[in-house]
Amino acid sequence: MRIKSWLGASLVTWTLLVTGCSGDPATGATSASSAGGTPAAETAAADNQRIISTTVAATQFTDALELGLVGIPTSSKELPKRYDGVTKVGNPMTPNMEIVKSLDPTEVLSVTTLEYDLAPVFKNANIKANFLDFTSLDHMNQAILDIGTRYGREKQAKALVDGYKAKVEQIRKQIESKPQPTVLILLGVPGSYLVATENSYIGDLVRLAGGKNIVQGEKVEYLASNTEYLQKSNPDVILRAAHGMPEEVVKMFEKEFKKNDIWKHFSAVQNNRVYDLPEELFPTTGNFAVGEALDATVKMLYP
Questions:
Q1: Is residue 292 assigned to a domain?
Q2: What pLDDT, in 10s, does the model give residues 138-183?
């Protein structure tokens, strides 16, 4: 997850938000975002593979593609029934490498937002890791198609991607004659928050739902907050997302909006257009519930 200081605001460092970067050939790990498709020579029959999925989102998609796994993430979130009884390998940010190695995997699936920290770990363990790019719907669709090709699940992958494309087209027709609202997206953890750009996953959902992010022209996913600048942009809608401990983050946002006098000058606050996003639909990277998330976003942008 790439973060940049904005307009002189100091850079915010979070231990709960890992820093991601583009794939580095020197790590020996593979990024789905830069793979450019799967060569036929590398296509492998799924039955001969020992795949570990280390994130909930990747596990949802392997289930939809009808792939077996030898390892799954440890999570409080409900995982597909297909994987009941499968060995748990720890949380996505710090998988238990002793357990991972004991399962003798042919490939471990993670996401690009964790690549910076995890690629060296897997390389040192001599384990092949594939970091899936779920930072936007287009990137996620390509990652799904790549997995389908690699493991002989082209039909399932195409059906899944076609469904997402159909949802985007439905929404495009639904909103095409409506005025475009401006949107501020805040991403919080207990005690702090960042501003999400159009390059973040939630920023991409807002774009697809017809909204215009007040932060334009940035290459990073998140920026440090500068409330005075944000107020000058005066967005029509404010979306508040939580990463980890969502109930605590919602309380933090409520306290911030009451305590910091500047928020009352925002049109979105004055017009009751501030929305807290449910984490199960709006995580920091794409997941299986894209259709539901897009529908929910449209309702918030066009009440």
A1: yes
A2: 999 999 999 999 999 999 999 999 999 999 999 999 999 999 999 9
Boundary residue ending a domain (151, 171, 191): 171
88 and 220 both lie in a single domain: no
Instruction: Say yes or no: 10 and 111 in one domain.
Output: no
Instruction: Assign residue 216 the CATH number of its domain.
Output: 3.40.50.1980
**Is residue 147 domain-resident?**
yes
Q: What is the pLDDT of residues 76-114, one digit of tens each?
A: 889 999 999 999 999 999 999 999 999 999 999 999 999
Q: Are 241 and 202 in contact (CB under 8 A)?
A: yes
The pTM of this model reads 0.82
pLDDT at 36: 42
